Model the fold of this input.
Amino acid sequence: MRRVVGWRLPGPDGFNTPLLIAAFVGLFFFGTLDNGRGPAYPKIMAELALTNRQGSLLFALTSLISFFMTVFSSRWLRILDLMKGMRLSWLILSLASFLIGLSGTLQSPITLFIAAIIQGVGMGITGMNMNLMIEAGAPVTHRRRAYGGLHATYGVASFLAPLLFTGVQFIGFGWEGFFYGLACLGPLLFFLMPRGEETFAKVPVKNQSAPVPLLLLILMGMTVGTYVASEIVISSRLVLFLEEGHSLTNARAGLYLSGFFILLMAGRLFLGLVDLPVKGPFLLVGSLLLTGIFCWLGKQGQFLFFSLTGLSMSVFFPSYMDWLASTFPENFQKVTAFVLSGIGIHLVAMHLGFGHLAELLGVIKAMDLALYLTGASLCLLGISLTWVSYLPQSKQRATNNTP
Done:
């Protein structure tokens, strides 16, 4: 039985407004904390006397804990409904933010690593819940747009976090002040956000839904993982590629990277506002094909196309999540866990050695990785789409949709 708790926020028919608001706010908090570490990273490294290896381990630790939270999500999703889980994650992220600031005040690397572990727990819960909230809170006709708006929120947080960090320092506070201030956000959200009705994720129950083959789950996780890896190559290596490989100035190279992030955010905002009359699989294939073409043209010296990969990539992840929700309605939690785990594995690998691998291959070859990874993602996507078309539930849906 569902129980109404706290104050309710009415919304249009078919929409669960509290769930949708919590998903957007949760990702914004997640993104602000995640991207706030970037500009603070050099100061933290210097003040706490951390080596580059320790710094890489710090980021990898957060990603690894988040990965484990995703892997074991079916256990805690049975206990916590989506709203309570998200509200709990806000408190956990606030605690992590407070400890990051405290590590600077106390000059304590141990406190910083504890914060990284706690942050991984909070991000794991937020990452799972926000995607499940969109699936539960938006009708099918608006779900892709909802995912587009959701992931555009991360782009907005990525853009604002460095500005907020600079602003805190401009008014006279140290880098610790940014994290102390951000730590206040979680308790405020916990008490002020509408609670709505209890809504649990659809955790698959044995013998009640058609099983999804393990190999297919791994393929789908790798599809998204290789896509994310290609995005990381461009976002992390583009400036170096343009400066050292083609002798551009830092300012000019930075413009191309800024263009990439702006178009990535704009594309997801557009997807959130406009209902594209294109089926999900075609949109996914088109996204990866265009990304591959743009990467190739960028490698030929047409650097503007590297910026345009932000636009072609922008539609992939929201559309992929919408396709998963449509294809596996009864197993969406399980499939989402595998997909996010695939991303987590690639993030851990990137933080532990991906950058070093790119350096070993050289600046020019590093950018080739974006093209190869996009091609790998396209191949894996093609195999997944073909496999899914032969699954029993796909044939059943086709039969039901036949006039």
